[in-house]
Design goal:
Distance between the termini: 45 Å
Helix content: 10-25%
Oligomer: single chain
Strand content: 35-45%
Largest sheet: 8 strands, antiparallel
């Protein structure tokens, strides 16, 4: 099938001009590069960048679209881009779990970049942020230190590859299960299988018998593109090491699979209690970092049915399932008084289309939606859903609205008196992040795959 897109004469007349540097960033570009100022190109790039920018509460402006010759013509790759960025005085941070996105920083200026290579051309989109993005991942010093250790020879590797330990004169953290006061009715959960969750300032603590698991909230410098050992060690230094001393037998491990798990482990003295414990730090996919604390390795093995110190690159990845399932305990009940303010959920799916015979660019198709609940006094609400679908430049818009009252029949459900001309009941719970909550809803009548829709509180 040949995909064609027709553009009016006025749009075609808008300029695509040769450039040797990015006007917005000053970054040097290879010969044959062009600045695409056409409205459709800029609007499409703006939508793509906005989707990523919202994850860090960034509002983007001054969108710039650059078209470069294909890699086969000049060898200009993502590595070439990174070098050019740094040579122009910017620091470069890859966005965790997003292959083509980067944050650029120079003094107090922040730029979100999208770098994409195709058969016929390479595209770079830039968007300037109105503020420092929340949770921006700057190039971690820990990663640099580990890389320097690797370059300094075997002897230094032997003495320096273990994570840093907190010195004795640093204040140890109060290891308590008293929940934080977050303004929500429920900040503890007791589950039928014996696990109990407690909301804390920097993690959710999940405890059963003498095993504790800390579901760490995202933190700067703990996720970045790197080999397993320096990545896990960097996360350990930031999340684990400050609360322990006398680390022994530290090692890292991973399993080669499509969704690679990372593990760090060792024996250490817990500063708060003075007791020696066995520690495992784990992350896989979108799980975030999980810290497992057991009095000894045998206790860990009895609970999770494997010896973490024997994990190799070719181990069975199903061994990690019990660890990954612990993320499901970041779950807290709802109460009617919790529902205040505006909560929104956004979805954007974008397809870059190309002619299957020639490889020529054939436009961009998008699916975008924005859903919001505005909760007010008296348990009233206003609900709105906006959907945009179609080719960029010819998209169709549809919007529906409802209003009514909510009731909370039990701790895990909420009723809406009217959503799209009918009353609806949703399964509901809160999950915690640093300083905030996420609202999770699933239509009780149409549970589908069982995946909850997530809503964040709008500022």
């Amino acid at each position: 099938m040949i995909l064609l897109i027709f553009i009016s004469h006025n749009l075609l007349a808008q300029k695509v001009v040769p450039v040797n540097r990015s006007p917005l960033t000053g970054i040097a570009l290879p010969p044959g590069s062009k600045h695409d100022k056409r409205m459709l190109s800029v609007v499409g790039a703006q939508m793509l960048l906005d989707t990523e920018g919202k994850k860090t509460a960034a509002v983007l402006k001054n969108t710039e679209v650059l078209s470069l010759p294909p890699v086969k013509n000049n060898g200009y790759t993502a590595d070439s881009f990174a070098v050019a960025v740094q040579q122009s005085g910017w620091s470069l941070s890859a966005v965790a779990n997003e292959k083509n996105y980067y944050w650029l920083q120079q003094n107090d200026k922040y730029i979100l970049a999208y770098f994409f290579t195709a058969k016929k051309e390479t595209n770079i989109y830039f968007g300037e942020s109105n503020q420092p993005p929340q949770g921006i991942i700057t190039p971690p010093q820990v990663q640099t230190d580990v890389q320097q250790q690797s370059n300094n020879g075997t002897a230094q590797q032997t003495t320096n590859t273990q994570p840093e330990q907190q010195t004795q004169n640093q204040t140890s953290e109060n290891n308590t299960t008293t929940p934080v006061s977050s303004g929500f009715k429920f900040n503890t959960s007791n589950f039928d299988d014996g696990w109990a969750a407690t909301e804390q300032a920097d993690w959710v603590e999940v405890k059963k018998d003498n095993i504790k698991v800390l579901l760490h909230y995202p933190k700067e410098g703990t996720i970045f593109p790197a080999d397993p050992e320096p990545l896990t060690t960097a996360a350990w230094n930031i999340l684990v090491a400050p609360r322990y001393s006398n680390l022994k037998n530290y090692k890292t491990a991973y399993i080669t699979t499509y969704n690679r798990p990372y593990l760090g482990m060792g024996y250490a003295t817990e500063n708060a209690s003075g007791k020696e414990v066995f520690l495992v730090l784990f992350r896989q996919g979108q799980s975030g970092w999980l810290e497992f604390i057991a009095p000894d390795k045998n206790t860990f093995m009895q609970q999770y049915k494997f010896d973490p110190e024997t994990i190799r690159w070719d181990s069975e990845s199903d061994l990690m399932i019990p660890l990954a399932k612990m993320t499901g305990y970041n779950k807290f009940a709802v109460a009617a008084a919790d529902f205040t303010g505006k909560w929104t959920s956004d979805f954007t799916g974008i397809q870059q289309l190309y002619n299957v015979y020639t490889g020529d660019y054939a436009g961009m198709h998008m699916n975008q939606s924005n859903e919001e609940f505005v909760f007010a006094a008296g348990n009233t609400y206003n609900w709105k859903l906006l959907v945009v679908n179609g080719m960029v430049g010819n998209a169709k818009f549809n919007q529906v609205k409802s209003s009514g009252k909510i009731t909370v029949p039990n701790n895990w459900q909420v009723n809406f008196s009217m959503i799209e001309n009918k009353a609806r009941t949703y399964h509901a719970f809160w999950s915690c992040i640093k300083g905030a909550r996420i609202l999770n809803l699933l239509d009780a009548d149409y549970p589908g795959s069982g995946i909850y829709q997530k809503y964040g509180l709008a500022k």
